[in-house]
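Design review, sub-item: ligand-bound model
Attendees: FS, YL, KQ
YL presented the inputs for the copper (II) ion complex:
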Amino acid sequence: MKAGRLKQGLTKQWLAGIAAMALPVLAWARAATPAVEPDEPVRWQLNMTPGITHTSQMAYDAHMFALWVCVAIGVLVFGAMAVAMFKFRKSKGAVAAQFSHNTTAEVIWTIVPIIILIVMVWPATAKLISQYDTRDSAMTVKVTGYQWLWKYEYLGEDVAITSRLDRASEAMRQSGRQPSLQELPHYLRDVDNPLVLPVDTKIRFVITADDVIHAWWVPALGWKQDAIPGIVNEAWTDIKKPGIYRGQCAELCGKDHGFMPIVVKAVSKAEFRDWLAAERAKNEPPAVAAPAPAEAAPAEAAPAEAAPGEAAPGEAAPGEAAPAAP
Ligand SMILES: [Cu+2]
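KQ shared the predicted structure:
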């Protein structure tokens, strides 16, 4: 009788505990994001998204393949355990087998995992090699990380832009107020000048930094690349869907590390050509001035609010910074 009451009390305690834990989760789930952009994660999302590039699709495929291999192994192992526990239990009179060595069993449990690993490694390696193959790209963008903004140079196009936290987010963060999703749906995730890229184009990136190590990361593209001073890293992408894709610096780079977001605006090829022409026109000297020398570096023609590290000695001209294709 006493034990029964104790058990009842414990059950009540457990139920109350679970309910208390569920409350914040439910509240969090109800606060829906107002505008969901393509490939943005959504609340209660269980799986990763396939992304919008070749690389992200490959990562998704590798992940799904590995997941189903794990599911099959899980079903087999837990199934065998369940059968062993229920069919051969002591109460049914089962007696434990006595054996110390079984060469056949040992060979099987060595060979089978090796085969499974090879089956998984083979496609994963092919995907990895393809991820690093930057040959045959149609254009190159040089990305330079600064404390705390990004500079994008369209190599060979005489166009360079700097991209920093948008004014609305900056003002909100300086004010110390608590922003709401309605007021600023992309608080700390918006920039003044997004990186405009064409869709269905193989774009090569050369990525470096001017001061400390940063990392350029847009999850929808499917990769993240370190931006290291003195080193030029390479990456590539081919965006399949026009849209806005957001990311951020992924390397702790100083006090404003959390305030240097990345925004990629993927547009059609025609729209991109128009945008590029408009940017180039902005950088052209006024008609009254003497014609600029042909070798004027695009960095000199950058907007007025140029990067702090702009004039740093030893900063290579965009063309020089691009390493020869492997
Ligand atoms: Cu950074």
